[in-house]
Amino acid sequence: MPMYKVKPVSPGDIKIDLPTCMYKLPNVHAQRMNCGEHALQNGEVDPALKALEERQDEVLRRLYELKATVDGLAKTVTTPDADLDASTLSRGPAEAVFRGTADLDSLLGKDLGALRDIVINANPGHPPLSLLVLHALLCQRYQVLSSVHVHSSVSVVPPPLLSCLGPRHIDSYVRQRFQLGFTLIWKDVSELQMKFNTQSMCPIEGEANVARFLFRLLSAEPQDPVTVTQMDSWIDTAVFQLAEGGSKEQAVTLRSLNSALGRSPWLLGQEFSLADIVCACCVLRAGLNTSAAANVQRWLESCQNLGHFDCVYPLLQ
Amino acid sequence: MTKENVQGAAEEEQQAQSKKGLKKQQKEAEKAAKKAEKQAKLAAEQQEADEDDFAKDRYGICPMVQSQQKLDRALVRVQDLTPEKAEQQIWVRARIHTSRAKGKQCFLVLRHQQFTVQALLAVGERASKQMVKFAANLTKESIIDVEAVVKKVEQKIESCSQQDVELHVERIFVISQSEARLPLQLEDAVRPEGEGDEEGRATVNQDTRLDNRVIDLRTTTSQAIFRLQSGVCQLFRDTLINKGFVEIQTPKIISAASEGGANVFTVSYFKTSAYLAQSPQLYKQMCICADFDKVFCVGPVFRAEDSNTHRHLTEFVGLDIEMAFNYHYHEVIDSITDTMVQIFKGLRDRFQTEIQTVNKQYPSEPFKFLEPTLRLEYKEAVAMLKAAGVEMGDEEDLSTPNEKLLGRLVKEKYDTDFYVLDKYPLAVRPFYTMPDPNNPKYSNSYDMFMRGEEILSGAQRVHDAQLLTERAMHHNIDLEKIKAYIDSFRYGAPPHAGGGIGLERVTMLYLGLHNVRQTSMFPRDPKRLTP
C-alpha cells in the first residue's frame, strides 16, 4: 500500500478528441493495459533495434579506420622523413641519362597520322633559353621538325631570335618524315605558353613547366623520387629566386649553387640533368656568370663543353 | 381659311428661307473674315520678313553649276578641320548629315566621306531669323557650300569625327539639293544589328541597301570597306611587282569552258556563241609557256553557279598568280603566302582607321597570322578532325562545316586565321593538277584558308602534253575542246604552279564580315542584276 495517495484530479475515462495526423501516445491517465510494454524497460531488446545498433557500430568502426588512414597520410606529407624509411628506397644506379630513345607513342599518345607538333608561344622580350637547350637535346634523339614563326601581334623580332632553332632541315617540306614537331612562335604574350594536344590537354604555362614536359620526352628523368624532388627544388629555386628574385636572393642562390657544386660535378651528383640546364640558363640570362664563384664558373664551362648550350650564347648579347 | 393657312405657311417658308439664308450669310461672312485675317497676317509677316532680312545675300540656293564661272576659292576638306585652323575663315563643301533647329540656333552636322563636323548658325548680327529657318529646312544629303569661321571647342564633340572644332557659319549656299524623302536613312544604315533590335531603332536590311547602293555607299562603314579593298589590290600589285612579276590582261570572251561546262555564261558572238571566262587559268599558263616566268592578273571572273550563299557571287574580281619554279612547287607556295602576309601586314599597319570604322558597325576579332605562314598537310588535317570526332574518309574532300571546324582547331592551337593545307587527294582536284610523285592517290595541290573559309585553290600544273591528255581522258573531258590548251605544252613548258584569290572574299574575311555582298560595290548574284 503506497504511503501517500492523491485523489484523482480528473477521471480517467474522459474522451478527448485527439488529432490523428502525427504521433499517438497512450493515455497516461488511463489504466495500464499492455504488460508487454514492460519488456523494453526490463532490458530485453527488440531485434530490429539490435540490428540498427549493430549497423551503427559497423559504420563508426569504418569511420575510425578512415580517420586513422588519413592521419597516417597527413603525417607522411608534413614530416617526410618521419614515417618513410629512406633506407628501404632502392638507390639503384642513377638512370643512364639521355641514352636510348623513348617510345613517343607511350609518352604522347598514339600517332593518328598527324605530326605531333609542340607549339610554344614565347615573348621575344624574354626568350626561353632552357627550352632552346632542350630543343637541341631533342634533335639528337628524334627527328624533329623545327620552325620559327612571328605572330601578327609582334611587329619586329631581332634576327638572332628568328634563327635560334638552327638551320632548316633539308627535308622540312615533308612533314610526314618527322617524329616530332617543335614550333616556336614569337608572340605578344605575358607568360610563356605551350600547346600540344588541344583536345585533351590544357595549355602549359611557364618556362619551368614546359621544360619539365620536354625533359620527360627525353626519357631521362631520374627514377629515384628523392633525386626527382631535388631536381624540382633546384628548378624552382632557379626560376623564382635567380630569374625573378632581387639581388639578395640571387646572391643567396649563387652561394648555395657554389656549395652544391663543390661536392659534385653536377647539381644532382654525377649526372647532368634538367636542374643543370635550367639553373645555368637562369644564371646566364641574369648576367651573373661573370661575377660568380669558382665552382659555378667551372660548372658553366662544363655545360658549354657539352655542346648543348651553343644556341644560347648568341642570344645573350 | 386655307388661304390664310397657305399664306401663313408661305410666310413661314419665307421666314425659314431667310433664316437659312441668314445662316449662310453668316457663315460666308465668317469665312471672309478669316480669310481677310490670314491675308493680313501674311502681309504682316511678309512685311516683317522683307523688313528684317538683312542677311538675304548670305544664303540661298545656287543656280545649277554649269561651269558658269571660275571662282578662285579654296575649299577645305572636312578632315582637315583641326584646331590648327582656329579663327580662320574658310569655305567648306560637304553634305548635310543632319540639321536641327533650336529656337534661334540651328545645328548642322556636315559630312564628307568618313568625316563629320558640327556647324552652328545662330540669329545675330550676321544671320537673320529667315536664314536660320532656311538652314533648318534644308533636306538631308544636300550638298552645300559653307563659309565659316573655325572655332575651338572646350568640350569634345563626341558624335563627330572632328571632335575639337566647330564651324560658325557666315554664309550657306545649296549646290545640289536632295529630295526630301530618302529611301534609307544613313544613321540607320550604320547602326550595328544588335543595337537596333535592343533600342527599337531601325536598321536597314541588305536588300534595301543593295537596291539603293548609291546612298548606302555614302556611309562611313562602306567608305572604309572599299578603301580597304582598294588597299588590298594595291598591296597585291606592289608586292608582286617587287618580286619581279609581270602584270598581264587575259581575254574574258573565250571559246571553250575551262573548268568544266556547267558553270559558264554564254554570250552570242556574231554567228556563233562564246563564253565568259571562269578563270584566267589557261591564259596564265600559256604566258608561262611563253617565258614570262612570273605573271599575275587582276580582272573579273564569271561563274554561273546558281548558289545563293553568303560567299558566292556570279561576277567577282579575281587576283591570280602563276609562277614557274626551279625544282619544287613549294617555292611557289612560299611566294604566294609571302605575298598574302605582306598584304595583311600592310593592312594592319596602314589601314587601322578603316578597320576600326568597320568594327564599330560589325565588331569582330582582329585578323591574326604567322610569318612564315603555317603549312599543314591534308593527312594531318584529317587526323585533327578525326581526333575532334568527325568521321571522314582519308581521301574525302573537306566539306564546308569541316573546313570551318578545322579552322577553329588550327586557331586554337596556333592562334592564326590564315594557313595553307597541302597535298590534297588527287580525286577531288581538276584534271590539270600534277599528281604526287610518291603516292598516286595524292596531288601537289593546296588550299589556303582565312578564318576557316577557303580563299585560294592552287596546284602544280601538269606541264607535259601527254600526261595532260591522259588526265583529261581520265576525267572524261572532250579533248577537242581543249586542243589549244594542250598544244601550248608541246613546245617546251617549264614546271609551274599558281593560284587565285577573290578580292571581295579576302576583304570580307579579313574584316570578319559575314556576307560577300558587303564587300562588292554592285554585287551580282543569281537574283540581282542591277544596279
From TrEMBL, chain A:
<feature type="domain" description="AIMP2 lysyl-tRNA synthetase binding">
    <location>
        <begin position="1"/>
        <end position="45"/>
    </location>
</feature>
<dbReference type="GO" id="GO:0017101">
    <property type="term" value="C:aminoacyl-tRNA synthetase multienzyme complex"/>
</dbReference>
<dbReference type="GO" id="GO:0005829">
    <property type="term" value="C:cytosol"/>
</dbReference>
<protein>
    <submittedName>
        <fullName>Aminoacyl tRNA synthase complex-interacting multifunctional protein 2 isoform X1</fullName>
    </submittedName>
</protein>
<keyword id="KW-0539">Nucleus</keyword>
<dbReference type="GO" id="GO:0005634">
    <property type="term" value="C:nucleus"/>
</dbReference>
<keyword id="KW-0648">Protein biosynthesis</keyword>
<dbReference type="InterPro" id="IPR042360">
    <property type="entry name" value="AIMP2"/>
</dbReference>
<dbReference type="InterPro" id="IPR031889">
    <property type="entry name" value="AIMP2_LysRS-bd"/>
</dbReference>
<dbReference type="Pfam" id="PF16780">
    <property type="entry name" value="AIMP2_LysRS_bd"/>
</dbReference>
<keyword id="KW-0963">Cytoplasm</keyword>
<dbReference type="Pfam" id="PF18569">
    <property type="entry name" value="Thioredoxin_16"/>
</dbReference>
<dbReference type="GO" id="GO:0006412">
    <property type="term" value="P:translation"/>
</dbReference>
<feature type="domain" description="AIMP2 thioredoxin-like">
    <location>
        <begin position="114"/>
        <end position="205"/>
    </location>
</feature>
<dbReference type="InterPro" id="IPR036282">
    <property type="entry name" value="Glutathione-S-Trfase_C_sf"/>
</dbReference>
<dbReference type="InterPro" id="IPR041503">
    <property type="entry name" value="AIMP2_thioredoxin"/>
</dbReference>
TrEMBL record, chain B:
<keyword id="KW-0963">Cytoplasm</keyword>
<dbReference type="GO" id="GO:0003723">
    <property type="term" value="F:RNA binding"/>
</dbReference>
<keyword id="KW-0030">Aminoacyl-tRNA synthetase</keyword>
<comment type="subunit">
    <text>Homodimer. Part of a multisubunit complex that groups tRNA ligases for Arg (RARS1), Asp (DARS1), Gln (QARS1), Ile (IARS1), Leu (LARS1), Lys (KARS1), Met (MARS1) the bifunctional ligase for Glu and Pro (EPRS1) and the auxiliary subunits AIMP1/p43, AIMP2/p38 and EEF1E1/p18.</text>
</comment>
<dbReference type="InterPro" id="IPR045864">
    <property type="entry name" value="aa-tRNA-synth_II/BPL/LPL"/>
</dbReference>
<dbReference type="Pfam" id="PF01336">
    <property type="entry name" value="tRNA_anti-codon"/>
</dbReference>
<keyword id="KW-0648">Protein biosynthesis</keyword>
<keyword id="KW-0547">Nucleotide-binding</keyword>
<keyword id="KW-0067">ATP-binding</keyword>
<feature type="domain" description="Aminoacyl-transfer RNA synthetases class-II family profile">
    <location>
        <begin position="226"/>
        <end position="531"/>
    </location>
</feature>
<dbReference type="GO" id="GO:0017101">
    <property type="term" value="C:aminoacyl-tRNA synthetase multienzyme complex"/>
</dbReference>
<protein>
    <recommendedName>
        <fullName>Aspartate--tRNA ligase, cytoplasmic</fullName>
        <ecNumber>6.1.1.12</ecNumber>
    </recommendedName>
</protein>
<dbReference type="Pfam" id="PF00152">
    <property type="entry name" value="tRNA-synt_2"/>
</dbReference>
<dbReference type="InterPro" id="IPR004364">
    <property type="entry name" value="Aa-tRNA-synt_II"/>
</dbReference>
<dbReference type="GO" id="GO:0005524">
    <property type="term" value="F:ATP binding"/>
</dbReference>
<dbReference type="InterPro" id="IPR004365">
    <property type="entry name" value="NA-bd_OB_tRNA"/>
</dbReference>
<keyword id="KW-0597">Phosphoprotein</keyword>
<dbReference type="GO" id="GO:0006422">
    <property type="term" value="P:aspartyl-tRNA aminoacylation"/>
</dbReference>
<dbReference type="GO" id="GO:0004815">
    <property type="term" value="F:aspartate-tRNA ligase activity"/>
</dbReference>
<keyword id="KW-0436">Ligase</keyword>
<dbReference type="InterPro" id="IPR004523">
    <property type="entry name" value="Asp-tRNA_synthase_2"/>
</dbReference>
<keyword id="KW-0007">Acetylation</keyword>
